[in-house]
Amino acid sequence: MEYVSLGVIKDSFGLDGTMKIYSTTSNQAQRYKAGSKIFLYNPQTSERKELNVIKYRQNGPFDFVKVEELNSPEEIKELKGQEIHAIKDDISLEKGMYFYSDLKGCDVVDKDNNILGTVKEVEEYPAQLTLRVGRKGKSDFFVPFVKQFIKSIDIENKRILIEIIEGLL
After folding, report:
1. Fold for the domain defined by 3-90
2. Which of 64, 68, 75, 145 has the fewest Cβ atoms surrounding its Cβ within 10 A?
């Protein structure tokens, strides 16, 4: 089973055990719908614990999620830094949307189909998402995830066609 990260627990909110989560996802209203199952993931131990969502609200970059299994601020404070995951298959994406995990490992090619490198990471910056592309024997380069640079994405064949401008490589 494959999981996707929805965010990282930053703190508790209120007295009922609501989690304050720094969001790393979109379409939160669907993902945190009452009755949905999410998973608490501890990156140090690789353990996952299933949680049942009761309610959700958003404020800026934070998601406030109340689950059945956690009922006090003290419980949440012990979980700071742990991640919230969802089962990848349970999440439907709109056309033109991608999971970060789907982009990782894709070959990045130019208009002549020359392989320039492979996506190592999808990084979030205030202006936009950016692909970190690794190259053998050379330093990584970065491609802003915007239409001006990303010309096509073929997840099935793991290829991303980009427009190269001076200074990009």
Report:
1. Elongation Factor Tu (Ef-tu); domain 3 (2.40.30)
2. 68
